[in-house]
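Hi everyone, sorry if this is the wrong subforum. Our group has a chain we'd like a structural model of before ordering constructs, and none of us has done structure prediction before. Sequence below.
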Amino acid sequence: MNISAARRTAYAGSALWTVCAVFAALTAAVTALPPHRTWGALAAVGYAVLALVPAATVRSAPPPVAPAATDVPAAPGAACRAGPPTRRQPRHRWLTGRLPLAGCALTAVLPLLVLAFTDSAQEEVHVVHRAGARLLAHGTPYLSPDQLAGADYTAYNPYLPGMALFGVPRQLLGLDARFGFAAAFLLTFALSLRTAGLRTTGGLRATGAGPGARGSVGRRTLLLTASPLIALPLAVGGDDLPVLGLLCLGLALAGRHGRAAAGRSGLVLGVACTLKATAWPALPVVAALLAVREGRPAVLRLTGGAAPALAAGLALPVLVDGAGLAANAIRYPLGLAEAASPAAAPLPGRLLAALGPAGQLCAVVALVLAALLIGGSLLPRPPRDAGGAALRLALGLLMAMALLPASRFGYAVYPAVLALWAYWRNLDARRLEPGPGRRPPAARRPTARRPAAPWGGAAHPDREPGLRPHRQPLTGPHADRDERLPAPAGRHRDVRPRDRTPLPTR
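Answer:
Right subforum, don't worry. Here is the predicted structure as tokens:
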């Protein structure tokens, strides 16, 4: 990469970090939520620092020195032994290569630590903590319908039973649930990129061959985490992050070939479906993908993989406290409970629910029709790969976010991250596919091997089989001599007597 291309890339990176800094500053100035204000103030400073580093490193790098005009050719490796122009290049690469890690630390980890130690979080985090306490004390994370009578929205738990497990470390170790959210997302999302076959710097697939695979996966994961799309919910308490990471991992496993891939995808998606209802649309989408690619046996293996997780995370809680689960996780999100949800984003579903019982019914009917429309589109035009399945799932979740009676703008993280994951996956797949007139980047150019001819056959038709020439054909006064050497062991040997006449000496 020459200096001009490096400068363009650095300036583009500085522009993106500047946009992120403006967003964080506006969040701190406009929001009325204390956790969001704290994140905005801290992240704005971090993004500003990140915006200055790329441009400063490129401007400090000296231009390349042209070699002096001389008739004496340069010695091999002389360009590598050049002095000052190449000494700053490693420093420049060291700084730019660690920007994703620095961005993740400044804009996500540091605000998370500040908010966790000050016990400032969104209400969702406190709901998960209370659910973990109830699970340990009573065996169910929900209050019964009798206990919910006359209670406000803080008494409800709109999540499925699996989400309460993130609140258990709070009761046992005093650890905030946001650390569990962050660890689950980072691990599952990075594993999904690696499973999907991410292209490495050398053009190879990320199957564990070489350090480039690990670098590409980690770099993209850190860049996404440093963006406001993930850094904001990670710091303030986004319980959607573990669900999102599991969805990406399930899609990546479904896109692989093999008998075990479908079962593993079903297991991962089954675990996601025990956390929040937003993961349920992934099951029919992945089932359609496997049906068109591998047939009915793959769909059965998907179902068999998801069944144990669903039985342990949903069927058993239904048997223990079915009424509490229905009142908290079904009626409350649909706006049918006595207390109204504080999620009041001005989206179509929320606006319809605000019109009264008829409006709530219309919102629920519109949500069901949208689900049937997305599900019906899987029959005539099913997705063909994991990227197409991710895009179809992103569209379905976007429509659900718009039509839910109790919705918020934070749900936009689902379609945004799924679309970005599909873009990365399809981009790497196109780079690996050979185009017209191109060969695969990871494959070597095939070498045509000549058919093995017997000794003295096609190459020397005047010689008998089983003999090979002693040396190159002789020229000069002794060209008529035909010295021969016996063939290697195991081959036919020449048993004819040789001419032992000594050669004349000069």
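For your construct planning: The chain is about 60% helix and 0% strand. Residues 64-72, 77-91, 199-214, 440-471 have pLDDT under 50 and may be disordered.
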